Amino acid sequence: MAAEDSIRAQLELTDFDLDHRLLELSGVSLLTFISIGCASCRRARRELPGMALPIERLCWVDAGDNGGLVERYGVFHLPALFVIRDGQFFGALQARLERASLVSALDAALAGPAEELP
Prior knowledge:
Layout: E1 10-13, H1 18-24, E2 28-34, H2 39-47, E3 57-62, H3 67-72, E4 80-85, E5 88-93, H4 99-111
Parallel strand pairs: 1-3, 2-3
Antiparallel strand pairs: 2-4, 4-5
């Protein structure tokens, strides 16, 4: 994906389809856990799609409706962001919701070793 493009591909994932979908997708996915009552989550939902991030897609999980995934991924705060590339897990992103911080965190995560999805 070109860095100047906004993110167009977005998926809504649940306990029922997350594993299957993420394993079959190629490229980099940013898995984002959000909740409707969370102000930071609403900001992430509004701003992330317009950021020129080096990813192929945003994947959204409603933390309130998908407790199994929240537990498996060890989500303790929202929004929670994780990096998946070609079906492999590259960990959680600890970054501010701004482009430079997210790009730096993505680069660092993808430079590390991959693991299987939680």
